[in-house]
Specification:
The protein is mostly helical. Helices cover 73% and strands 0% of the residues. It has helices at residues 6-31, 40-61, 67-91, 96-106, 108-114, 117-126. The longest helix has 26 residues, at 6-31. The radius of gyration is 18 Å and the shape is globular.
Length: 138
């Protein structure tokens, strides 16, 4: 079993703290504003960011168990950068909002650096997965 160093655990906790604080500033200010009216998809995004900020707090206590949250964060930002930002940049149609989001999504590099990839390989790739059904042992 690969061990994760104390430094790597601290880096993970810093990544979770970044997610918790960043998600809170973006979402909770809007959620707690009773006068705020939302379009459907804006409400979905804000709600998801709020949930992520709460789950990121669990990552401070359980940094390895909450790794799937960091995988999700890294995955959606990478997909957005490749599918939305890159084509906009290539076509010369990068507006200010998209550019600002590119900067915010590029902070995912912190998450990628913090993830203990050796541990991920050992526990998510090399180890056997959970069984699909229970086997009865007499």
């Amino acid at each position: 079993m690969s061990q994760v160093s104390t430094l790597r655990l601290l880096l993970l906790r810093a990544a979770y703290l970044l997610l918790a604080i960043g998600g809170s500033f973006i979402s909770w200010v809007q959620i707690l504003d009773p006068a705020k009216k939302w379009e459907l998809m804006h409400g979905v995004v804000v709600s998801m960011l709020a949930a992520m900020s709460i789950l990121a707090l669990l990552g401070l206590r359980y940094p390895l168990q909450m790794l799937p949250l960091l995988f999700w964060e890294l995955a959606w930002k990478t997909i957005w950068l490749l599918r939305v930002a890159l084509p906009a940049w290539r076509s010369g149609h990068m507006d200010e909002d998209t550019a600002a989001n590119v900067f915010a999504c590029s902070l995912a590099i912190v998450v990628a650096i913090a993830i203990p990839w050796g541990y991920v390989f050992q526990h998510y790739v090399k180890n056997a997965g959970d069984p699909w059904r229970q086997t009865n042992r007499a």
